Structure formats: structure tokens, C-alpha cells
Amino acid sequence: MRDSFERVARINLLFYLFFVAALLGAIAFNIRPAALVQAFLSPEVLFAVRLSLLTATTTTIISLVLALPAAYFLARRQFPGRSLLETFLDLPLVLPPIVGGVALLLFFRSPLGRWLEGMGLSPVFTAGGVILAQFTVVATYALRLLKTTFETIDPRLEQVARTLGCNSGQVFRRVTLPLARPGILATTVITWARALGEFGATVTFAGATRFKTEVLPTAIYLSLSSVDIDQTVALALILIFLALLALWLLRLAAGIGRENSD
Predict the structure, then answer these.
(1) Domain spans, the chain
(2) Which of 42, 52, 155, 203 has the most CB within a 10 Å radius?
(3) Please, are residues 129 and 123 in contact by the beta-carbon 8 Å criterion?
């Protein structure tokens, strides 16, 4: 029975391996070195890379700054309606990103949105709109991952620090944050990678304008629309490289976590 199960497991693993290899091979098959170098150095690709890195990094920083105290509060406090609140906050995890983009568009057509627009805060179809759309999708990821991280930390360690005279802020800075460092690093990488690959909400709210709101996923969409295969492959390879970098950083965070637990 065990041998049969292991045989099935190995076959399934080989299927996954073949599936990923086939997808990567399809991209590799369309690589033309000379055209690829030209595409890499094109102003449009360079603009998309710069804007993607800028917006994804900004979105990640904002998400972490807001999620850190909120996630800690949810992990440590019990209060009436907590379960309902968490369900409401988790809603973006299961909604299609394009729904978030539509909601943003409708919000800025509301009286409050028009008032913000009158104050000069109109991110629709701008680079700021890219950041807001990415934040709409990834903020809940950061909140959920950080909450799970804080829940794995023994609260008795914080109680000991309080008995030694530390206030809540000192406990958080000196005890909780150092213990949560691997989880925070992992959350940072996952949030950044998710923001970098966000397309649905971004193209709905910020549009797909070349040299204005053109991030890497949007650039791929525009390149495919114009049947520019060489540029599409170049953009795909850039995203694959960034994905591999994110995976390496995740493994680094996991290694730090194991060292801390030892």
C-alpha cells in the first residue's frame, strides 16, 4: 500500500515538474538573442521595469507600515465581533482583483471621491493609481501573514518583559519584532512579489497607457496586443528573474527562522 502511494506521489511530482518545464521551455523556444537584447534595452521595457520596481516597493512599504500594528492587535486581542471583522478584512483574498479596480473607480465617482479629486487627489489613470490598485490587492496578504507570524510567538515572553518594567511599545520593539523578523521578511517578499505581478485591479483603475502607467504585467499585455513577441518574451524573462529572486529571499527567511528556533 505504501509503495503504491509513493509511486503515485512520484508520478504527480513528475507531472508538476514537466508542467513547469514545459511552460518555461515554451518561453525559451521563442528566444532570439539579438532581438532579445534589443528588447531589453528598449525605452518602453526600461520604463516598465523602473515603474514596476518603484510602485511595488512603495506599495509594500505602505502595506507593512499599516499591517504591522494592526496584525499584532488582531493576534493578541480578543473582542466582540473579531471573527466577523477578520472575515470582512479577508474579503480581498478571495475577490478577483478586477473587482477591486472597479470598486476604486466607483469610489472616485462618489461624493467623497469627487471631493478628494477637487483637493487634487485624483490617482485615476496615474502612477499613484497603480500604487493604490496594488495596495487594494496586497494589503490583506500582508495583514494575514503578519497576524500568523505574531500568533506563533509565545505571549509569555512578552509577559516576562512587562514584569521587568517594559511598556507595550518597548515589548513590541525589543521582544516581538526581533522574534518576528523571519516572518516579516517573508511577508515583505510575498507582498512585494504579489504587487509586482498585479494586473487586474491595476489595468482597471490605472489603465494601460504606455510610458505613464505601464508596469511589467501591463507591458506584457500591450506587447501581446501588438503581436510583439520579442518584447513579450523579454518582459516575461524579467518577471521570471524577479520571481526567482523572491523565492531565494523566501528560502533565506526560512533559514533565518530555523536558526532562531534552534
Answers:
(1) 1-28, 30-261
(2) 52
(3) yes
Which residue, among 240, 234, 205, 204, has the nearest Cα to 219 in the 3D structure? 234
Roughly how many angstroms between the first and final C-alpha of the chain, as a whole number? 36
Cell numbers found for residue 215: 508596469
For residues 136 and 195, the answer to whether their CB atoms sit within 8 Å is no
Asked if residues 64 and 191 have their Cβ atoms less than 8 Å apart, the reply is yes
Least confident of 32-36, 54-58, 138-142, 237-241: 32-36
Maximum distance among all Cα pairs of the chain, rounded to whole angstroms: 70
Q: Superfamily for 30-261? A: MetI-like (1.10.3720.10)
Say what the pTM is.
0.86
Q: Compute CA distances 52 → 49, 159, 214, 226, 242, whole Å.
A: 5, 42, 8, 21, 11
DSSP string for 104-140: HHHHTTSHHHHHHHHTT---TTSHHHHHHHHHHHHHH
